[in-house]
């Protein structure tokens, strides 16, 4: 985990209950959920196995240990989890070295949060080696800290990553807005007590208490996020 946390006293408008914004990475800020599936298909093809497209909804958004473990069990592939993890990470890094498209609205949202000095964290189930590579495109200056899936005892769908991010920023999880794209991520954020903005990428997500579903990051800005907190007061 890396952290350069600015002083909280200068960060929010007077009367605003929003203390921080916690952002997922794959499928939320960068259009890479499809990359992971493509790499999984290619790796298992090299092992002599074809992945069923219906499995994509099972593996999306979760930790690599879960998705890779599921695929090993489902296919019966003769490969260990540690070896498969290396192959998947290598394949993904090769993909993002060639192209790393941002989701619509991502660059504008990050710039706005930075302009108004809102404490912002990147919270991903991806490993540190992947996060650091993606940060070079997103701009590390936009984030006070980042939390990787291999840096917490339990990653998404458990609340640990979001609780770690809130603690690192010195804020109350109840006053954090989380932006996520999968049910796995939403589950983690809600278990941490955060208010969630869901921007579904692969599977559907339904609205619920403390959960707002939007079609795109293009409708999410600082006014929108502060409004969510105001509604809770």
User: Cα distance, first to last residue?
Assistant: 32 Å
SSE class: alpha/beta
The helix count comes to 9
Summarize model confidence as the mean pLDDT. 89
Which CATH class of the largest domain is shown?
Alpha Beta
Sheet with the most strands? 7 strands, mixed
Instruction: Count the domains.
Output: 2
Helix content: 40-55%
Beta strand count:
7
Report the sheet-strand fraction. 5-15%
Which stretches of 5+ consecutive residues score pLDDT under 50? 1-15
Strand order of the largest sheet: 1-4-3-2-5-6-7
What is the 3D shape? globular
Rg is 17 Å
Walk me through this protein's architecture.
The chain has 233 residues and is an alpha/beta fold. It has two domains: 20-31 and 101-231, 3-Layer(aba) Sandwich (Rossmann fold); 33-97. Helices cover 42% and strands 11% of the residues. The protein has nine helices and seven strands. The protein has helices spanning 33-46, 56-59, 64-75, 81-98, 106-115, 128-138, 160-169, 183-191, 222-232; strands at 2-3, 20-23, 120-123, 145-147, 176-180, 195-198, 211-213. Strands 1-4-3-2-5-6-7 form a seven-stranded mixed sheet, with helices on both faces. The chain starts with a strand and ends with a helix.
